């Protein structure tokens, strides 16, 4: 007889739970791949001999690829379904990660980062469309928990990166191990994700103008993603050059940020249900700003770690809540609505990391972090304009 995992587990575990676990696995794999790259940025910067300003320019390649794929990702997900797009894109994402480890010149690194951003966003739109579908099965907010798995993977990736650095493992060997794990897990999980998307209209245009509600959500995502991108790309460098942390503690800030980002996402659905979307976003913005300003005002190991803890809590709920609201749009199908909001939001990734590099080159990393703190305040202010039903 032909038994499957769902046949064996269905007497005890519902179909929607199996779908939730499979989609959650895709979030984890994408987060692990990205965190693996982020954890080795200082190593790759040193290997290629890049200054902070040069690194800022190189990092433009990733969001450039990401932005190019945004309208295509939404349209493609709507046309052929998120299941096919997610499976292919998550696999290519892990494969492109390995190419980053083999880059020997600045141009090679930029080319690989461009592709990394392109396929990464294809995966992002597709797996979030899957999450919207699973959330519809539960009839209650669960989006943040999916993003929590992404962040948990980021925490695991940061810890793995620290171990690899400590053991003297070079980036391409590190990334090869991640690729092997990702492909093995994907082969299993892809069989149990949703076969069809919720509320999908295959006639949606490739480019879509967001309505006012989606525009507000996009602006909030934009501000939050500037802060998030800063933590991903510059936390290790901040601890190395400003905090003057020992080699073993260079990743402490990133680890602190990712740990509270993961924890916050596992409680964000409950918190938003109890206190409302608007209040949750307002509190998030305040936490982001206060955390960054703490790390700037008190540039010491302990206080900087506390500050990064606060930033992680603040960032944790913003993107998943915005995506959940966008996925419920009655104007656009989930894939296209998510792409429309992401087009605005991911401009933060386009602007944030290189902005820090350019400002740091002209002034200092501390001043650039103050500017990023202002984006946290913008999240709090714009949250007041959010409608309870987006």
From TrEMBL:
Location(s) in or outside the cell: Membrane
Topology term for the membrane: Multi-pass membrane protein
Source organism superkingdom: Bacteria
Keyword line: Membrane, Transmembrane, Transmembrane helix
Main location, first listed in the record: membrane
Key word Signal present: no
GO CC entries: membrane
Pfam families per record: MFS_1 (PF07690)
Residue ranges of domain Major facilitator superfamily (MFS) profile in the record: 19-390
Record carries keyword Membrane: yes
Transmembrane portions of the chain: 21-38, 58-78, 85-102, 108-127, 148-169, 175-194, 214-237, 249-268, 280-298, 304-323, 335-359, 365-384
Family matches, as PROSITE patterns: MFS
Entry GO MF terms: transmembrane transporter activity
PANTHER family listed in its UniProt record: BYPASS OF STOP CODON PROTEIN 6, INNER MEMBRANE PROTEIN YBJJ
Protein name in the entry: MFS transporter
UniProt organism field: Larkinella punicea
């Amino acid at each position: 007889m032909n038994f499957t995992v769902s046949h064996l587990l269905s007497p005890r575990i519902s179909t929607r739970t199996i779908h939730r676990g499979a989609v959650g696995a895709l979030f984890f794999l994408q987060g692990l791949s990205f965190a693996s790259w982020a954890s080795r940025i200082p190593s790759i910067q040193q290997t290629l001999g890049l200054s902070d300003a040069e690194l800022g320019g190189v990092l433009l390649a990733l969001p450039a690829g990401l932005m190019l794929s945004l309208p295509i990702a939404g349209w493609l997900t709507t046309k052929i379904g998120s299941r096919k797009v997610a499976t292919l894109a998550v696999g290519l994402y892990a494969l492109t990660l390995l190419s980053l480890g083999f880059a020997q010149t600045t141009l090679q690194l930029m080319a690989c980062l461009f592709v990394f951003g392109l396929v990464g966003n294809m995966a992002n739109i597709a797996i979030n469309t899957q999450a919207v579908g699973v959330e519809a099965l539960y009839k209650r907010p669960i989006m943040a928990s999916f993003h929590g798995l992404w962040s948990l993977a980021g925490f695991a990736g940061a810890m793995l990166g620290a171990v690899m650095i400590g053991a003297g493992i070079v980036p391409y060997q590190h990334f090869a191990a991640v690729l092997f794990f990702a492909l093995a897990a994907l082969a299993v999980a892809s069989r149990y994700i949703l076969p069809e998307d919720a509320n999908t209209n295959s006639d949606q245009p490739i480019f879509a103008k967001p309505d006012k509600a989606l525009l507000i959500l996009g602006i909030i995502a934009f501000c939050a993603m500037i802060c998030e991108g800063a933590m991903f790309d510059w936390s290790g460098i901040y601890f190395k050059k400003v905090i003057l942390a020992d080699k073993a503690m260079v990743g402490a800030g990133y680890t602190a940020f990712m740990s509270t980002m993961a924890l916050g996402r596992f409680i964000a659905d409950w918190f938003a249900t109890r206190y409302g979307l608007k209040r949750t976003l307002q509190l998030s913005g305040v936490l982001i700003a206060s955390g960054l300003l703490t790390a700037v005002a008190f540039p010491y190991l302990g206080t900087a770690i506390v500050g990064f803890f606060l930033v992680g809590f603040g960032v944790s709920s913003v993107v998943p809540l915005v995506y959940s609201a966008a996925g419920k749009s009655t104007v656009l199908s989930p894939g296209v609505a998510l792409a429309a909001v992401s087009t605005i939001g991911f401009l933060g990734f386009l602007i944030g990391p290189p902005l820090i590099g350019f400002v740091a080159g002209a002034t200092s990393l501390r001043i650039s972090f103050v500017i990023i703190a202002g984006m946290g305040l913008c999240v709090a202010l714009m949250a007041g304009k959010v409608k309870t039903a987006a």
